[in-house]
């Protein structure tokens, strides 16, 4: 690690009220460089040879400290592993896609992330703010599906019958018609067209 990078991290930690220690620097560097959104255990195994004094408990506690001050984001685990995954705050708005079977999380390319975010109507966000009393300053979206490569690496069968796929998906995901109906409504909200003459008292309230 260069002195320049250590100095930058020292300033970053100081701004967020954290002491700059060798272990924190090593862990945050590893988290910044990772594009696999690693678990605490994966980070520990990648660092234990280089930072012998670092324990698994230290990794967990340090990651939680990073999340508490906004230097990292914790994503609940899914899939076979089930462990939470972590993502360093890169200072941009990028989206994720998750494999529901393996738990693997990947960054959606920045240009595609921007297209998705730009498609959200500003008036919808304003309506949410007005009705729910929030000031929205960030939008996070996670897409969920099945990654063929990740499933293959787990030793899953390369070819499944349609019946096997239906059974596996039923175990892994909600297929209730009411759930699907609610999901469709959430993904395709009906946004009232507003003009200067719109009677806001008649707008739907959540």
TrEMBL record:
Entry note: cofactor: Binds 1 Mn(2+) or Fe(2+) ion per subunit. Binds 1 zinc ion per subunit.
Basic and acidic residues biased stretches: 196-206
Gene3D superfamilies xref list: 3.30.1490.190, Winged helix-like DNA-binding domain superfamily/Winged helix DNA-binding domain
GO molecular function terms listed in the Swiss-Prot or TrEMBL record: DNA-binding transcription factor activity; transcription cis-regulatory region binding; zinc ion binding
Reported cofactor(s): Mn(2+); Fe(2+); Zn(2+)
One example of a Gene Ontology biological process annotation: negative regulation of DNA-templated transcription
Region (Disordered): 150-206
Name of the molecule in the record: Peroxide-responsive repressor PerR
Organism classification: Bacteria, Pseudomonadati, Planctomycetota, Phycisphaerae, Phycisphaerales
This protein's encoding gene: perR
């Amino acid at each position: 690690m260069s002195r320049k990078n250590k100095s930058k991290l020292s300033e970053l930690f100081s701004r967020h009220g954290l002491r700059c220690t060798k272990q924190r620097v090593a862990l945050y560097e590893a988290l910044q460089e990772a594009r696999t959104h690693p678990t605490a255990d994966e980070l520990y195994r990648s660092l234990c040879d280089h930072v012998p004094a670092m324990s698994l408990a230290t990794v967990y506690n340090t990651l939680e400290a990073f999340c508490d001050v906004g230097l990292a984001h914790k994503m609940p685990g899914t899939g076979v592993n089930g462990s939470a995954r972590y993502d360093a705050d890169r200072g941009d708005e990028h989206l994720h896609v998750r494999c529901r079977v393996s738990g693997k999380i990947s960054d959606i390319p920045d240009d595609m992330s921007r297209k998705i975010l730009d498609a959200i109507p500003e008036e919808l966000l304003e309506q949410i703010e007005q009705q729910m009393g929030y000031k929205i300053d960030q939008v996070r979206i996670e897409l969920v599906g099945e990654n063929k490569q990740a499933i293959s690496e787990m030793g899953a069968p390369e070819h499944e019958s349609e019946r096997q796929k239906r059974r596996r998906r039923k175990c892994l995901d909600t297929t209730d018609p009411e759930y699907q109906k609610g999901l469709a409504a959430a993904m395709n909200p009906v946004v009232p067209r507003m003009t200067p003459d719109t009677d806001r008292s008649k707008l739907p309230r959540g």
